[in-house]
Amino acid sequence: MADSELVFHTNPMSRGRIVRWMLEELGVPYRAVVQDYGTSMKSPEYLAINPMGKVPALQHRGVVVTEAAAICTYLADAFPQAGLAPAFDDPLRGTYLRWMFFAAGPVEAAVTANALGQLPPLEKAGFVGYGSYDQAMDLLEQAAMSASPWLLGERFSAADVYVGSQVDFGLAFKSIPQRPAFAAWAERLRGREAYRRARALDDALMPKAD
Prior knowledge:
CATH topology of the largest domain: Glutathione S-transferase Yfyf (Class Pi), Chain A, domain 2
Distance between the termini: 36 Å
Helix content: 40-55%
CATH architecture of the largest domain: Up-down Bundle
Number of helices: 8
Largest sheet: 4 strands, mixed
CATH class of the largest domain: Mainly Alpha
Shape: globular
Strand content: 5-15%
């Protein structure tokens, strides 16, 4: 594998769908490697890439990047010509990073805890980074309401890919509440050509029903 090659390890039933969309937005060449749950994902060869034995993972320039938010952030910075991340000296950089990591931290944790029925009692809310599920969803809704049309205004960014994917998935799997601001933002995201290309590529990899 040449250091300059982008190798994308994924599975169509994973958060790899987020990274696939990000790669399609970038419009750069990449090689996708589908890893299967319980088999190749746990093989010694893949565990040498990601010891967690999960996807997505990215190999580029001799570096391995894991975690969907980190991969999207890395790719936006590695390919600045795509304009998917504000530069370090851009005032929008702070807003961009805020929403990226709010979704990766509090939103992800709150949604998971809620789905597992493991939300803390209100008197213990200070022990978790999201406070409460409702608090996290209310702030996520503020982000969606500020997306006019995108989180950075007229400028589409990797934050729309990552945070928007959390909303898109959440609506599909009913893990976030059905609110008008979420639905409107998700509809705009689904209209993007790169979103549609990525979805078609992943859907084609889904197991076929017998």
